[in-house]
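Appendix B, Record 12. Input sequence as logged:
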Amino acid sequence: MATIGEELAKARKRQGYTQEQLALDLPISRESLAKYETGARRLPDDMRRPIAEAVDDVEFYFITWNEAAGEVSIPFFNGDYVDHHPSSMVFLVKQETDEALEQLRRVCWFKPVHMRTETEREDMQKVVFELLDAAASTINLVAVVCREYGFSMKKLFKQWRLTLKARRLQK
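Logged structural output:
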């Protein structure tokens, strides 16, 4: 598995930045950036967010999210059987969403948790896995569209959060 520094170097290159160009957007020198990328120096925690915002790379967002949140994050789909073409990702989202909706229909939502059988608890866990699959495929589609169209994922998420506040879904 690649280090955060190696992933930073890949992201920087995907975005077409030199170390000098990226360092201009950050409160660090090109030399420090080079040391982070090679692993000669540990990337400080307080630099992770500014670097992620400056590089604005879809895959790097997933990596830093995973590193910060651990298992409570959505992974970037980069497996051998993943086709990142937008139409393929739309198909995946539809498939995963349909499976999640089917599982949602199968469980009883009004029965109190403490009265559920072990089988009902297992069924609820299946629902959670299907919902996670649907959410992950959807966020991966967002990433693919951002990359395909050259959208900034950072800017889109900021705009989206404003709409959540406007709709009173978030404070």
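The mean pLDDT is 93.
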